[in-house]
Amino acid sequence: MSEVKKPVFQPNKAFAKEARIKNMCEYQELQDWAHEDYEGFWDHFAKEKIDWFEPYTNVLDESNMPFVKWFEGGKLNVAHQCIDRHLDSRKNKAAIIFEGDRGDKQIITYLELYYNVNKMANLLKNEFGVEKGDRVVIYMPMIPEAAYAMLACARLGAIHSIVFGGFSAEALRDRIIDAEAKTVITADGAFRKDKPYMLKPVVDKALEEGCECVGKVLVVERNGEDVEWVAGRDYSYNEMIDQQSPVCDAEPMDSEDPLFLLYTSGSTGKPKGVQHNSAGYILWAQMTMEWVFDVKENDTYWCTADVGWITGHTYIVYGPLAMGATTIMFEGVPTYPDAGRPWKMVEEYKINQFYTAPTAIRVLHKTGAEEPKKYDLSSLKVLGTVGEPIDPPAWKWYYEDIGNSKCAIVDTYWQTETGGHMVSPLPGATPIKPACATFPLPGIMGEILDPETGEKVGAGESGYMCVTRPWPSMIRGVWGDPERFVKSYFGDVTKDGKPVYFTGDGANYDEDGYITITGRTDDVINVSGHRMGTAEVEAAIKKSSDVAEVAVVGKPHELKGEGIFAYVVLKNEENLGELVDTMKAINNVIKQEIGNIALCDDIVFVPGLPKTRSGKIMRRILRSIAKGEAITQDTSTLEDPAVVGQIESCVKNGSC
Length: 656
Ligand code: WTA
Prior knowledge:
The chain has 656 residues and is of the alpha/beta class. The protein has 3 domains: 37-266 and 277-333, Rossmann fold (3-Layer(aba) Sandwich); 452-520, Luciferase, domain 3, CATH 2.30.38.10; 524-653, GMP Synthetase, Chain A, domain 3 (2-Layer Sandwich). Helix 14 (358-368) packs across helix 15. Residues 264, 309-311, 386-389, 411-416, 437, 503-505, 517, 519-520, 526, 531 line the site of 5'-O-[(S)-ethoxy(hydroxy)phosphoryl]adenosine.
């Protein structure tokens, strides 16, 4: 860890006065309460925040760890929590403000949201036969209908599984099959940089084989481009929606009924369907919105994520709507028509909280450092980052040039599996340090543990970021694979004889007890804030007929955080002369199998891989070579130590 002491920035005093948590004493009181009476703490907030149809009888059952039950016996509906309960006091308030890529705008009030979601729910129920417990795959652009689809599923008790629009047909097909989805909701496409792009053809391709489970496809016509319609399977949302009744009862759901699946990469094998259930998830989504962004009744909040990722689920749709906030949905990209787009939007909508990823901050900084000066950003109060460690230069620009040195930066650390924030500053309370996630939120028993002893590590020592007690929005399972759930998250670290949740991330405490997340300890890499399993990318590359062996590692990348670096052993060394074509072929395979987000930045053909005698690839060596670092690892256990020097010279020369 760095020896240089990080500067500390105190919360803005005027902001703190009005904040929900006003100082570190209040933070500590909440955290002490949770420590002393864990169930009492959560019981209090569950009663205060959720509009229960029927009260629960038990706060937490951890008798069958890690299969936990929160708020058993309770009945609720997440769509009711996000919409219906606000109608008395907020029916004419903007729930969603949509801005299209080309500048088209739409304001959807809570009452309109209620009708739109009910109609979509009725369409799914009456025309498609979607019922409680059915899985619905959503493959959509960033348009309001994506939120309607999510909430319509929640209203019916159907389990949605959103697949990010950048994933390929193969990746979509795998997820449809794994979840045995009954219905797919998609769009013809949408707009990006003033041009139409397509989604429906990807769905058509995905459904070509192995997806017999899918009976019907609902297509929102967004860009009006020609698409193929399969009779009896594909239906136009635009043609059907107006005939639907605007009233649809919200299905009473058990606290632990599943709300959604979201597939995410692990260190091994195929992506796993992370399952989140109803009550605990929505409770923590709402609480963290209130505490971490401190959104007030008249505020406008913008999270730039895509609904295809967990950030879009929790902090564009569920969290903001659960608390009755106004949330912005943006279809476009932040650098189009220029790198001032987000700041123009901040000025125009008078945005108060802005939440984005370090990758976006780096790109906006690099391509438009002077842009913020052109706009009035004085409405901003809280700035957030998520998805990867933020580097100090990006942090500084964000703090000074966007936040005018008066906004708190909340560096929120969490994961698909945690459902909501775990470690984050509180904007009115926590003195912040650049690029530092600071402290676990109240109620979260986050600790950095020594993986060997299970003891909390001391200041300056690195350890594993763990959570030692179940929290309400914790992952409830890996769809269809309970063993993988236990093994993936509860297999590595044991504290006081009990397995605890391990995030997969390394972290350390500084001398003030501040937590800094240092990155993954496993074979997961983080490309532009998107999680990617090296195993997944390798499996894709292996489908290329020229490839004998492959190993993929992450390499620091100026804008993306990490880039993908592939070491490839070709079947036929004579092909070496055709390197460029082969490189293209390899990236084409990745595009087909996963999507553009997994394209390799570097592909190096090597004569062999550094393997131990038992055949395990020593990726640490490959990571060092990719970074251009000297090899300090012991290579004597390798089957063929000479291969290391050969690989190094391949990398230096670009080929062998
Ligand atoms: C990383 C995104 C450092 C981390 C919400 C984690 C972070 C993975 C931060 C989860 C942060 C997320 N600082 N690293 N503030 N936030 N990460 O599931 O490695 O897409 O395990 O969820 O992103 O990525 P996921």
